[in-house]
TrEMBL record:
CDD domains: crotonase-like. It catalyses: (3Z)-dodecenoyl-CoA = (2E)-dodecenoyl-CoA; (3Z)-decenoyl-CoA = (2E)-decenoyl-CoA; (3Z)-octenoyl-CoA = (2E)-octenoyl-CoA; (2E)-tetradecenoyl-CoA = (3Z)-tetradecenoyl-CoA. Signal peptide: none annotated. GO terms for molecular function: delta(3)-delta(2)-enoyl-CoA isomerase activity. The keyword Isomerase applies. It comes from the Eukaryota. Pfam families: ECH_1 (PF00378). Gene3D superfamilies: 2-enoyl-CoA Hydratase, Chain A, domain 1, 6.10.250.170. This is Enoyl-CoA delta isomerase 1, mitochondrial. Pathway: Lipid metabolism; fatty acid beta-oxidation. The keyword tRNA-binding does not apply. Homotrimer. It comes from Drosophila albomicans. The gene is LOC117565900.
């Protein structure tokens, strides 16, 4: 995509500076003047983990793209090894109640904004997509992944119960028996395995190729009336979004109780220690 053909804007500056992250642009949005397709790039070093500010920036970017009458959204990463490492686990560890409530509500809203977007959505998965990283990719309508990476929801492996809307994210892409086995095993798929079960639609050999394949998918709706398309998509997806649309408070309460339980906190401590020790060896 040529720089001269794109409009570039960034969100999340203020929030990011407050959270003392390394970069000042959590998300980058480029809109191709020719195609009208927006590329939304996650840009939170080192691994695009989703803290409160990141999820807010993602949600705000998506709303801004919809408001700008773009023709579609491609979600990707500025990191060439990691698409997203999922929720920022530091947000879940010994959380301060007010921030945890804001964090979980933001997760709910970000997921709903992406899952029910009026626009065609596609993910150019140019790195590992773990847990909520996989959930975000699954919430899109189309997925193109680069070889040599991994994707999946491994929550049960480290003692996390999978919330219903995350189950639904998988169910909107994969058949129920596959979802059941994958979630209960905490299965992480290689690119090849993901293609075999249709968790991803295509494999591309470079990020540019992945973006181009995503753009072709979005272009395939050129003949569809955008309003009719959006309302039909909403109808098709409403069932899986029902819990969060109708009872977000109940889902919030259940999740908060679980996250603040000693059982969860203990397994999180052990998991984080393991993750950190990897880099000390
Ligand atoms: C009955 C109904 C009840 C309903 C109850 C509901 C209950 C709800 C509960 C809970 C939540 C469950 C949902 C979970 C979803 C999630 O998304 S949890 C996040 C899970 N993600 C991971 O486990 C990813 C872990 N990371 C990695 O595997 C690797 O980092 C990587 C493969 C992504 C990248 O590897 P590499 O490039 O080698 O980088 P690293 O050196 O590993 O990482 C750099 C740096 O970042 C830290 N880090 C990595 N991931 C995270 C993260 N997700 N959060 C926070 N920090 C992370 C890592 O520790 C390194 O830090 P240091 O440099 O060592 O300080």
């Amino acid at each position: 995509m040529l720089r001269s053909q794109t409009k570039l804007f960034a969100l999340g500056k203020r929030q990011l500076c407050r959270s003392m992250s390394k970069s000042c642009d959590l998300t980058l949005v480029e809109v191709d003047d020719k195609t009208g397709i927006a590329t939304l790039t996650m840009n939170k070093p080192p691994v695009n983990s989703c803290n409160l500010e990141m999820m807010r920036a993602l949600k705000d970017s998506m709303k801004q793209i919809e408001g700008n009458k773009s023709r579609g959204i491609i979600l990707t990463s500025s990191n060439n090894k990691v698409f997203s490492s999922g929720l920022d686990l530091n947000e879940l560890r010994n959380p301060e109640q007010e921030r945890l409530v804001a964090f979980w509500k933001e997760l709910q809203e970000m997921w709903l904004t992406l899952y029910l977007s009026n626009l065609p959505t596609a993910a150019a998965i140019n790195g590992h997509a773990l847990a909520v990283g996989c959930v975000m990719a699954s919430a899109c309508e189309y997925r193109v992944m680069l070889p040599g990476f991994t994707i999946g929801i491994h929550a049960t492996k480290f003692g996390y119960v999978v919330p219903p809307f995350i189950v639904n994210s998988y169910l909107s892409v994969l058949p129920r028996p596959v979802v059941e086995r994958a979630l209960l095993q905490g299965k992480i798929f290689s690119t090849d395995e993901a293609q075999q079960i249709n968790l991803i639609d295509e494999v591309a050999n470079s990020k540019e190729e992945a973006l181009s394949k995503c753009a072709s998918f979005i272009g395939s709706f050129a003949e569809a009336n955008p309003v009719a398309r959006a309302l039909t998509k909403r109808q098709l997806r409403a069932e899986f979004a029902r819990t969060l649309l109708d009872e977000p408070e109940a889902e919030l309460k259940e999740s908060l109780e679980y996250i603040t339980s000693p059982l969860f906190q203990d397994s999180l401590d052990a998991y984080l220690a393991k993750l950190k020790s990897k880099n000390k060896k």
